[in-house]
Amino acid sequence: MASKNCLDLIIKDHEKLKSLHSQYMSTSDTDKKQELANTLIKELCIHSSLEETLVYPVLRDRVPEGKNLAHDAYEDHFAVERLLDEMLSMKVKDDEAKFDSKMNTMIENLFAHIQHEEGKLLPLLRQYIYPNELVELGGKMESNRPLMPTHPHPNMPKEGVKGMVAGLAAAPLDRAYDAARSAVSGQ
């Protein structure tokens, strides 16, 4: 199967995240909300890590003003990741209103970032990066997806080699935690 363009994969991820949020908002069952929140956190952490390790370095190095744009994108991710980290330590059933409030704050930040990314960053990447390179980057995103962290790590390095190594080190621990949580809770 041929790899997809990285920009299409990013948009597909954004649509999946929006769908998970919509499902979360449309249910009143706290167990289902928790399951959807856990899935959203996992998918968002994977997506963010892929962008930070593969896409933003290209943006930084190849697009005019890319250094500032990439820095701002990393900062957006950090703000969302801090909220995700707080959410991960909470349970919907313990205080649904508080969890919903945290979810809404996180989603507002996320959707503002998505709008900026799709409105400005992705068009710039399309303009300055050759189509075959975007496809190659898409292939790297697909092959690295299983290696990315599934939990927020707001204090972990995100950029460059340090970011890649930190992410690769965190991912197996995240997956072990996910498996243990699933075994205990039956989710």
From TrEMBL:
InterPro entries: Hemerythrin-like. It comes from Acanthamoeba castellanii (strain ATCC 30010 / Neff). PANTHER family: HHE DOMAIN PROTEIN (AFU_ORTHOLOGUE AFUA_4G00730). This is Hemerythrin hhe cation binding subfamily protein. Residues 8-125 form the Hemerythrin-like domain.
